[in-house]
Amino acid sequence: MAATIPEGLTRDSGKSKRARVILDLLDEALPDAEIALDFDGTFQLLIVTMLSAQTTDKKVNEISPVLFERWPTPEAMAEAPREELEQVVGPLGFYRQKSRNIQGTARLLLERHGGEVPDTMEELTELPGVARKTANVVLANGFGINAGVVVDTHVTRLARRLQLTRELDPVRIERDLMRLFPQDRWLDVSDLLIHHGRRTCDAQRPRCDDCAVERLCPSSKLDNRRDKHATARPRR
Fold it and tell me: Which of 24, 98, 133, 191 is catalytic?
C-alpha cells in the first residue's frame, strides 16, 4: 500500500504526528536505502565504519579491498607494520590516528573476545576509536540489533529541518529520535535520513521541489520558511 499523508496532517502538525508518516514516505521513495560501505562479515564492517569517520563511504570502499587483502583477520591486522598500514589508510585523512585505532581494536578483539567482534554497546565502545555512532552501525548492520539510531551530519541536519528535534548534540538527537520511532525501525531511520540527505536535502541547496516529505517539512523553502537548521547556534 502506498504511503499517504493523512487528512489534516501538515508541516505545522506536531513532530509525534508527522514522524512515522515521514518515515513511511521516505521508505517508499528510497527503496534502496541501506549502508553504503562494502564489507564481508562483522570484522570488516567494524573496521570500515571506523575508517569512515570524517571521510566519504566512497573513499573507504576504494581502499578497503587492498586493506583486507593484505590484513584480512584481526590477527593479521594486529601484526601489520604500522608504516604499511598508514600507507594504505593514508588517502582517507587522519591516517595515523585511524591506523592506530584499527590496529588497537584488532589487538583488543584478540585479547578480550577471542578474535570475534562483540555484540553489545558496552563492549564495542571499549574498543579504541569506537564511539556510540560506530557501535550502532555495527550492531544494526552486523547483528540485527537496534540499540540506537546512527546520528551523522545528514541525520542531524534532517532531524532538525524536519523539527523532529531541537538539539545539536548527537546523543540528545539520538534520544529524541528513539522516542519518536519504534525500536524495530531505528535502522530505517538512520538509512533513510542519510540517503535523503545525500540525494535531496543537501546542506546548502536542498531540492525541496523534489522532496518526498516536503509537505510535512517545516523548513520547506517552497513555503518561504526559515531553515532553522542553518540559523541555529549551539547553546552556551
Answer: 133
At 114-171, the pLDDT tens digits run: 999 999 999 999 999 999 999 999 999 999 999 999 999 999 999 999 999 999 999 9
Q: Which residues of the chain carry a pLDDT beneath 70?
A: 1, 223-236
CATH architecture of 42-135: Orthogonal Bundle (1.10)
The amino acid at 97: Q
Residue 152 known to be catalytic: yes
Tell me which architecture the domain covering 15-32+149-222 has in CATH: Orthogonal Bundle (1.10)
Q: Would you state the pLDDT for residue 2?
A: 75
- Known catalytic residue: 202? no
- Of the candidates 38, 119, 152, 227, the residue annotated as catalytic is 152
Q: DSSP letter string over 53-89?
A: TTS-HHHHHHHHHHHHHH--SHHHHHTS-HHHHHHHH
At 45, list the grid cell.
564492517
| pLDDT, position 227 | 52
CA distance 15 to 157: 15
